[in-house]
Amino acid sequence: MGAEEEKLEVKLEEEEQSRPNRNPNPNSISQDQFLSWKRHKEVGDSSRKEEAARKRAEDVIAGTVPMNGRELFLHEPWVFDNSRY
Fold it and tell me: How does DSSP classify residue 24?
């Protein structure tokens, strides 16, 4: 049985060598590529946030959306005047 085990080992080694080298992570990227992607993503995120904030401010001024506490305090401070009571 020793000969059969050796043949099996040789056969397994040949199969491993004949297979193409497989990258364990085929989607790996370099640090420079990642940093470039991250900068691009942050620019897009910040522009979307600025646009949403601008739209929200316009909607608050127009009265189409209810104001939160901060917006109410900034736009209608008379609501918080306790000197009347």
Answer: S
